[in-house]
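ingest -> validate -> predict -> emit
validate: passed (alphabet ok, no gaps, 112 aa)
predict: started
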Amino acid sequence: MSTHIITTESSVLLKTRAPALPYAPNQYDADYHNQLNSVLRLYFNAIDQLIGQLNAKTVVYTFATLPDATQAQAGDRAYITDSSVTTFYSNAAGGGAFGVPVFYNGTNWKVG
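emit:
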């Protein structure tokens, strides 16, 4: 059973777990090293996939086109190009000339 880190309508990030590495033999064994490399390759591929999802490109909006409360979920992130506010954790507002990252806290879009 896998545990979700983050679940939204568009993505599910699964928690990764460190692999159970095989015990090393007393003497060099090619099969052991092949098995170890396979296990590590699978684990690092899972981590690469997770990091790729976390580094997904941020969507760019103007303030007026940000998703409203019926579309946004707490934790959603975006970037607006017309902010009049630049102070961290202030309510985002349009009509300015600043580009800022914003996040939805469940009630408002905040600068940050």
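The mean pLDDT is 85.
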